[in-house]
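FYI - complex with zinc ion, inputs then prediction.
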Amino acid sequence: MPTHPLIIAPSVLACNFGRLHEEVARAEAAGADWLHLDVMDGHFVDNISFGPAFVQAVAKVATVPLDVHLMIDKPAHYFPRFAPYAKNITIHIEAQDEVAPTLAAIRAAGCTCGLSLRPATPFATLLPFLEQIDLLLVMTVVPGFGGQPFMPETLSKVAAAVAERSARGLSFRIQVDGGITVATAADSARAGADTLVAGTSVFGAPEMGSAITSMRAAVESATA
Ligand code: DX5
Ligand code: ZN
């Protein structure tokens, strides 16, 4: 079974947009491994967040890799506008565009590619695409908004992904996103997640460095 080093990716959606530069620096100083960017188009989800110009602004000041999560209906059409700034681009299986060609195009553009699913979407829908991905994002809340409570029932998909990955000898990362705190990070890691997105619990913490350090420690002891 592949053991990927733990990645903690603060979600920029939860930061103070008016102080973007300082917030990026604060997250990096606190120990962020990646920064997660939630792009929402008002169609795929009932919210509009930010687009390529914002991601470019983050890229100008960030030194860690950027992980772009496209919660949009037309990822094939729009991902090239994010690709110059992203290390990883994740699309949703429920989006309108065809999945396999979009994943291939993301890799051809020089990024790693991720595939995500909503809590209501069964794990089996991903089976045809697992050979093609670098990261599987199991949404642990209904996508659209930060600050929602973690849905523990989604962890059965993390466990299913671990089993399928090992059965096929694959090595994609398993990411969780939504409601991640010290406690739910430990539960997710125990189920097999190696890549954690956390917005509110880290940007909203009194001290972001301790929030990330505690999360890392909780995961290490949960998986020791
Ligand atoms: C939800 C987004 C998440 C969100 C996580 O649609 O994909 O990345 O920002 O935020 P918290 O950690 O506040 O649940
Ligand atoms: Zn996200």
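Residues 11, 36, 38, 69, 177, 197 surround zinc ion (ligand 2) (CB under 6 Å). Helices lie at 20-29, 52-61, 75-82, 99-108, 155-168, 182-191, 200-203, 208-223.
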